[in-house]
Amino acid sequence: MHSKISYFLSRIFSYPEQDPVRAGLTQALAGLAADMDLDAAPSTDITWDLARVEYTRLFVNAVGGVPAPPYASVYRSGARILMQQGLDEAIGYYRQAGVEPDSGPEPADHISVELAFVARLLETGNRKLLKDFLRDHLLKWYPVFFERLLAAQPHPYYETAARLTRLFLQNLCQEDSYEQTTVS
Amino acid sequence: MNRRRFLKLSAATCAALASLELENKGIFRPVASDAATCKGLPGSLGAKEVTSVCEMCFWRCPIVAKIKDNKLVKIEGNPKSPTNGHRVCARGNSGIQLLYDPDRMKYPMKRVGARGEGKWARITWDEALDEIAHNMKEVKKKYGPHALAMFDHGASAEFYREIFRATGTENFSNEPAFFQCLGPVSMAYLTTYGYQVSERVDMANAKAMLFFGSHLGENVHLSHVREYMKGLLRGAKLVVVDPRFSAAAGKADMWLPIRPGTDTALILAWINYVIQHDLYDKEFVHKHCKGFEQLRKSVRDCTMDWAARICDLNVDDMTKAIKMVAEARPRVSLHPGRHAAWYGKGDVQRHRAMGILTALFGSVGVPGGLYFPTPIHLGEADCLGEDEVDDLIEDVKPPETSLKDGYAFADIFPGSPTDAIIKATKTGKPYPVKLWGVCGVNLLQTISNPYQTMDAIKKLDFIFTIEVLPTEPAIWADIILPEATYLERYDAVHKKGNLYPYVTVRQPVVDPMFESKPPYWIARNLAKRLGYNLFTCKDEREFLNEQLEEIDLSLDKLSKAGGIVTFKANPYKDLNKPLGLNTDSGKVELYAESYDDEDLDPIPRFEPVPAPPKGYARLVYGRVPMHTFSRTMNNLWLSNECPEGKLWINDEIATRIGVKDGETVIMENQAGYRSNPVTLFVTAGIRPDTVYLPHGFGSRSPLLTKTYGKGASDQFMITNYRQDPFMGASGHRSNFVCLIKDGKKLSIPELRPLPPEIPRFKMRKAS
Ligand code: SF4
Predict the structure, then answer these.
(1) What is the reported pTM?
(2) Which of B566, B584, B605 is the last residue of a domain?
(3) Less CB within 10 Å around the terminal CB: N or C of chain B?
(4) Which of B76, B88, B219, B627 maximizes ligand 1 atoms within 8 Å of its Cβ, making it the mutation to test the pocket?
(5) Given a cut of 60, is residue B330 above it in pLDDT?
(6) Cα of B635 to ligand 1 centre, how many Å?
(7) Closest by Cα among B380, B209, B283 to B575
(8) CA B57 / ligand 1 centre spacing (Å)
């Protein structure tokens, strides 16, 4: 189930190609938030149009600059530009797992690619690599990204997703949290 | 947080998750075996090298891009290049910061808020192109073809231009780079010499150089600046005429701090002086020029005393300077200049006068003077569809009143004066203009009176822009298309027919990032939707090879040759034979009959432009070597080097009005428009009646995070302008500012009295 959650978060952080309500994303988000005791504002009122505009503003291009560019590179080196150390790191981990992402339009250090990688490591049970990846890479930049995202007052849909991701990653990082998911 | 709870999912959540489609699941695949890596080697060592062409400015130096792990790590000059060699300038180096700028346009966008509000949604290419094509068709159907207008600049614009031409509009290429810049000098030298002299002046071999208001060295066109430096190192004399102690003035033997707007008076007096004192090349004039007698008569009253009074210079200096230059004849590089749209009125004539003085020195087709291009004949690529477009527009009727009307020579240039388009858009007269396409040009930081431009945009049915970075026009656009940077695309074959002729190509050094697309792809897909059979080659390589074939080259051959192939230059002429120029007479036209036919002065005359109103100084502007207009302001490295331009003000004026170097003030222009805060640079190196600001700062696009609001924009102070009567270029230098410090208005005192010949600018509203 962990990997499913991670794939799910990865999907929320990619561009909304579908209506988030119809696609069941809002419902799953609300369920996860409740299950994880996340004190989150309701986020189910998001329309597809709103999601597209909000995603564009937060992550693509916006007046005042994109508040939270979703790329490791922007946070992992002083230059604050794309395709730098953050990307090298990410690709290094992917290669250690013997994989590389499909060459999509986004650089491989996009948050949604990195979350999909987390999901894949969970799937394949590669815990050692997962821990290194989280501790030495993803959790090195995600908190800064998170702060910048929240400062931009995102729609609750994205706020909840961001909070949930933080919680999820932090917990994954702590080894003793590796227990079987229990279904109540 | 209770960790156990974290792991416990309710059945409902599990079910919800289980039912989701998780398309991200498949995005990883096993590493391909060729995943090359040169880890361990520092910097650009071990990098793959791809040759290409720079476009951080429009000089287009050949470059080599160093690629490591599919990433661009360094840019250098192409060592095979006969012009720049391994060198690039600061901007050329910083291309990497454009490519990887997080602010760059990544996906097609559609406006969802009000125009100018800057609220968008990312859309697909299909949606974006459909929408543009739909609007182009609608506007054409409703208002006719001329209601479409294209503003363009740069190598990538060529294909879009062809699309707009195919619609039949007369407004298919309205280049601010021409109408606010080069227009007057092109016109003047075309008339006088029959070819676009541009910067074909052989400074490296000159014995004397003469510049009028040049930014050489502040505007870095790499090989051009190197030729200039070579000339100086070889001992050439340099005379610089400029109200400001420019970089060039700093290297000059003589600096003449002329009153702005009076250069033509000085040149006419010098023409008269060299004729009267036999300081001209009689043989050249006799053999190769037309209209000497008329010229001699026309300038005979232009005395040095007269010019000294008008220009606020002293006769001794003027005499010394012209003698210094004349003695070096014919090896005189009188630089034709580049940005020539100064006052609207009189700009062409100023450059005509410069061209005439050049001819009197015989500095034509000889080392050290103006030289001739070496033509390189590429093949035609049929698939680009030029003929097809000609057929398409064969039956298009010209508008009853053209936007070129009133400009005697506008017809010989493509497109319409930008001023006429903006006014037509705003007023609907003489005909409505309802759709703009904008490619590679920041209209608001380029065209005079940006307030008027914004008003015009509000009247449009539709506006789209094609952009690499979200500059000001993007905020106004209905659709924005993300274009690949020069490092991610092919463009046309680059041929330089100057002193060191060569052929090279721009090619992608990395794949286009995000969903940015190369111009050929964009144009091809837009043309298809408009039903035009253009751009039928399947990709750029096909048409590039077709063009190269003619000179027995191909992309592969070029690549094997190090990305560049050179040719022998043929810049000079045998002056014992007729020059055979492409002018009406085949000779250098000192007297321009074609002007006479249009009631324009066939020989330049001095016409004064209004002086600053009391309390104001004239605003002039220029360049800094780290930036290319407003285009590079958001570049992190370049912005670090030079984040804002300083306002130069004369030291005596500063003392009188009580401002100090480094202080921050606001400018207010003659119409009451105020600038962003700007830092003062107090110097003896500028006249008291003039202030100077480097161009391109003070971005009003909040999308550009590194430059937004930094420094002041000269362009937003330029609200008064006049059209050139020849082709409609608009002059920018008839704007005047006073300063505001701590909310208090500071009048600029007049230290240099005005002669009666020069009128004063009349303020419309008293302030
Ligand atoms: S002068 Fe500089 S910016 Fe311009 S093309 Fe050459 S290297 Fe590039």
Answers:
(1) 0.91
(2) B566
(3) N
(4) B88
(5) yes
(6) 14
(7) B283
(8) 5
Contact criterion met (CB below 8 Å) for B146 and B431: yes
**Beta carbons of B385 and B378 less than 8 angstroms apart:** no
**Residue B737 belongs to a domain:** yes
Check pocket membership of B62 for ligand 1, CB cut-off 6 A: no
Q: Rounded to an integer, what is the distance from CA B483 to the centroid of its chain?
A: 19
Rounded Cα distance, B529 and B524, in Å: 9
For ligand 1, atom 4, which residue shows the shortest CA distance?
B57
- On whether both B558 and B582 belong to a single domain, the answer is no
Chain A's closest residue to B123, CA to CA, is A52
Write the burial class of residue B22 (CB in 10 Å: 0-12 exposed, 13-18 middle, 19+ buried).
Answer: middle
Distance of CA B732 to the CA centre of its chain: 14
* Mean residue pLDDT across chain B: 92
Question: Are both B553 and B579 inside the same structural domain?
Answer: no
Check if the beta carbon of residue B381 is closer than 8 Å to that of residue B543.
yes
Q: Is residue B530 part of a domain?
A: yes
B366 shares a domain with B393: no
Q: Residues of chain A whose pLDDT is less than 50?
A: 176-177, 179-184
Atom of ligand 1 nearest to the CA of B221: 1
Whole-number pLDDT of residue B6:
59
- φ and ψ of B750, to 5 deg: -95, 115
The H-or-E segment that residue B66 falls in is strand B62-68
Query: Same domain for B292 and B392?
Result: no
Give the pLDDT confidence score for residue B34 in this predicted structure.
54
Write down the pLDDT at residue B696.
Answer: 81
CA angle B311, B317, B322 (to 5 degrees): 90
CA B637 – ligand 1 centroid, Å:
15
Q: Which two tokens stand for residue B695?
A: 């161009």
Give percent above pLDDT 90 in chain B. 77
pLDDT tens profile B160-178? 999 999 999 999 988 888 8
Domain enclosing residue B660, as ranges: 617-746
| Contact by Cβ (8 Å): A111, A105 | no
Regarding whether B201 and B161 lie in a shared domain, the answer is no
Residues 6+ apart with CB under 8 A from B119: A53, A57, A63, B111, B112, B113
Burial track A17-47 (b if 16+ CB lie within 10 A, e otherwise): eebbbebbbbbbbbbbbebbebebeebeebe
What ranges make up the beta strands (E) of B459-600?
462-467, 479-482, 493-496, 502-505, 564-566, 588-589
Best residue in B3, B8, B9, B69 for a mutation probing chain A (most A CBs within 10 Å): B9
Q: Is B229 helix (H, G, I), strand (E, B) or coil?
A: helix
Pocket mutation for ligand 1, best pick of B51, B52, B54, B63 (most atoms within 8 Å of C-beta): B54
Classify the C-alpha dihedral B333-B337-B343-B346 as positive or negative. positive
Task: Look up tokens 């309500």; give the residue.
Answer: A21
Neighbour count for residue B767 (Cβ, 10 Å): 12
Residue B212 in any domain: the answer is yes
C-alpha distances out from residue B29 to A104, A182, B510, Å: 12, 30, 22
User: 3-state class of B733 per DSSP?
Assistant: coil
- Nearest C-alpha neighbor of B471 from the set B629, B630, B625, B621: B630
In a domain, B477, yes or no: yes
Token look-up 């299950």 returns A35
Question: Could you give the dihedral angle defined by the CA atoms of residues B466, B471, B476 and B478, in that order, rounded to the nearest 10 degrees?
Answer: 30
The count of domains in chain B is: 4
∠ CA B229-B235-B236 to the nearest 5 degrees?
A: 75
Q: Are residues B286 and B423 in the same domain?
A: no
Asked whether the beta carbons of B729 and B183 are under 8 A apart, the reply is: yes
Domains and CATH numbers, chain A: 2-183 (1.10.3480.10)
For residues B343 and B389, membership in a common domain is answered with no
